[in-house]
Amino acid sequence: MSPRVAVLVPCYNEGLTIAKVVRDFREALPDAAIHVFDNNSGDDTAARAREAGAEVHAVVRQGKSEVMRRAFADVEADIYVMVDGDDTYDAASAGDLVACVAAGADMAVGVRRATGESAYRPGHVFGNRMFSAVLARLFGRGCSDILSGYRALSRRCVKSFPVLSAGFGIEAELTVHTLGMHMPIAEVATPYGERPPGSHSKLNTYRDGLRVLATIGRLYVAEHPLRFYGGSALVLALVSVLLALPLLFTYLDTGLVPRLPTAVLSTGLAIVAAVSLTAGLILDTVTRGRREQKLLAYLALPAPAARDRTSASTSNAPAASANHGSGCR
């Protein structure tokens, strides 16, 4: 039996493009259910999507993460295709993304390749590369385009993923979730086009860039609390020792502590270091328990029906990495 495929399209004021997006994905994935999630649009986005044949859902709480939280909760499918409604992503690449997930990947990322001068601005390219490098440095692995809004996801990935971020942090959070669970990730190069005339981007380069960076930092602390708080404790302890050594030598020579404020500061830093290490140990235990719960949710769901049953013994748990399917790497 072929896996059920659902296309999830979060939208905010995309009346100019949404009908074309729905038609293009209907042509690329004729058996897929197309769901448009209208996030308080002030134009005719919902009406145009409905006329084009999509199932339209209204999401009151503002923000892309709020939309995807509702989409992942409400839509039932074996494979989910997540794509923006601005007609910049290539619908023809959806088949390759779905094939990657059907072949064994839990997430297939559409790596953007600009087809026009203004499609993928240099500042956005630089920011994406920087964020990808930071993510790879902090989590040991990464992907080429962590901010791509074009992805295919397995049911196991979606239903074990608690959406906690706000705004445009959903892509980074999804990437960290799959990396933290050691899920197979694939990448598919896909054309990335310019917005049509009259359509405007909702992104603010600096504001949203800082939000994504803050999201990555928050996720690092949440996923690796012992590293963060343990590293902080080590730095504080070293500073405390460096401040205390001259006082110790003076005390051994004279029996006096002439710089009492420095002694108090050194003692305070040592106490804060001990508290930081204790917090790291406690939070690390909490994080392990949370990760085990997500893993149990992942294992409780079957793999897509199209997966090769000969590899079932290795697909019951997340793998370190994978390259599957035509066009996957």
From TrEMBL:
The keyword Transmembrane applies. Residues 7-157 form the Glycosyltransferase 2-like domain. Pfam families: Glycos_transf_2 (PF00535). Residues 309-329 are annotated as: Disordered. Residues 309-323 have a biased composition (Low complexity). Keywords: Membrane, Transmembrane, Transmembrane helix. Signal peptide: none annotated. The chain crosses the membrane at residues 228-251, 263-283. Coiled coil: none annotated. This is Glycosyltransferase 2-like domain-containing protein.
